[in-house]
């Protein structure tokens, strides 16, 4: 049985709720939520591309941009846009210290979950 990467989006929602209720853990929970939302959408999209097309990932960092290009070439630009935004938010949350580039982290979390869910719903 294959793992359902869409479950990562459910974990992202759970982490958001934890951050909403715990000021002590809020930033960590929010950052992790954004990251899980991205990876849930990314891996779901990657599996879709492998299963329905001739996409073969290389197993290196450029796969993230290559997957977006693959969807763009398949006239699925909305998936390219969603994954692009999710990837940028994930990088900001995983690497930026302090989190200056995201002025409203709570909104970023909500947006990430919504964008990830759109990817999953579109590719269902």
Short account of what is shown:
The chain is mostly helical and about 120 residues long.
What does this structure look like?
The chain is mostly helical. The protein has a single domain, classed as Up-down Bundle (Four Helix Bundle (Hemerythrin (Met), subunit A)). 73% of the residues lie in helices and 0% in strands. The chain has helices spanning 7-21, 26-52, 63-73, 77-95, 105-122. Helix 1 (7-21) packs antiparallel against helix 5 (105-122) and helix 3 runs antiparallel to helix 4. The longest helix has 27 residues, at 26-52. The radius of gyration is 14 Å and the shape is elongated. The model has no long low-confidence stretch (mean pLDDT 93).
CATH topology: Four Helix Bundle (Hemerythrin (Met), subunit A)
Shape, per Cα inertia axes: elongated
CATH class reads Mainly Alpha
Task: Specify Rg, calculated over alpha carbons.
Answer: 14 Å
* H/I helix tally: 5
The helix-strand sequence is HHHHH
Alpha-beta content class = mainly alpha
Arithmetic mean pLDDT = 93
- Provide the helix percentage: over 70%
Q: How many β strands by DSSP?
A: 0
CATH architecture: Up-down Bundle
- Total domain modules: 1
User: What distance separates the N and C termini?
Assistant: 17 Å
The low-pLDDT segments are none
User: Largest sheet at a glance?
Assistant: none
Question: In percent, how much strand structure appears in the residues?
Answer: under 5%
């Amino acid at each position: 049985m294959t793992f359902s990467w869409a479950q990562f989006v459910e974990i992202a929602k759970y982490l958001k709720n934890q951050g909403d209720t715990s000021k002590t853990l809020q930033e960590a929970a929010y950052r992790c939520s954004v990251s899980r939302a991205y990876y849930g959408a990314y891996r779901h999209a990657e599996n879709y591309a492998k299963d329905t097309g001739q996409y073969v990932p290389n197993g290196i960092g450029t796969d993230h941009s290559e997957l977006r290009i693959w969807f763009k070439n398949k006239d699925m630009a909305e998936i390219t846009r969603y994954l692009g935004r999710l990837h940028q938010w994930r990088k900001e949350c995983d690497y930026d210290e302090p989190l200056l580039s995201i002025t409203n982290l709570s909104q970023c979390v909500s947006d990430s979950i919504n964008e990830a869910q759109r990817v999953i719903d579109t590719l269902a």
